[in-house]
Amino acid sequence: MSVYYIFQREVRSYFQSLIAYILIAVFLVLAGYFFYSDLIMHILWSFHKTDFGKIWEFYLFDVRYVLMMIIPLLTMRLFAEEKKLGTIELLWTYPIRDWELLAGKYLASLFFLSLMLGLTMVYPLITHLFIYEIDVAALLAGYLGLFLLGSSFIACGLLISSLTENQIVAALGTYGLLLMFWFLTWNEAVANQKVVELLLNISLFDRLLTFTQGAIDLKDVVFFINWHGFFIFLTLLSLTARKWRGIK
Fold this sequence. Notes:
Elements: H1 2-15, H2 19-45, H3 55-75, H4 80-85, H5 87-92, H6 98-119, H7 122-130, H8 136-162, H9 167-183, H10 193-201, H11 208-212, H12 218-244
């Protein structure tokens, strides 16, 4: 019940301000631009109708960068704002455990992510109705990968937001962390083979490739689950650290 209360409170706070509407509008505009540009590119450069199936691979890869821009702005306020306003101390006086507070905020962010991704389904629908019949199963696999990647961004944002009371610092810290994992394999040519293999094993962004091709690799799913578990565990440690400092 406490988790649902926190979830409801967070969702309400998003939509009672302009934050939700601005983020959704920016996300849809950028996602729509990438859909349009990828579609035009395939119309101009593809000579066979079957080549149109590749559009979703490029489109979903483009949307992941939009998510990387939007998610830190979504998560920056989750704990940082509570700390700055002093409302987190008030929450801790309620019979709410740390994991319930974390779960409620995490689920609210996942709801927001699902809503944004769900609204972009209008682009495949337009394609299906007016251009060519799409492979729904392959597209859903791609969206599953995009959801897992976006939720991994949220897990990172939760951790950074729990470490500061400044929303700008939380957003910039999340951007920095995500950029580090994005650039991780860019310089693999300067490393030996063992280092390259290690980097690829912890690479976050490369995990989307299999999903965009219409397949679901169990190894990638397990990777995302472990990623979530690791960062959520660190966030929970960050929240319980107040007890070590004598704060109840």
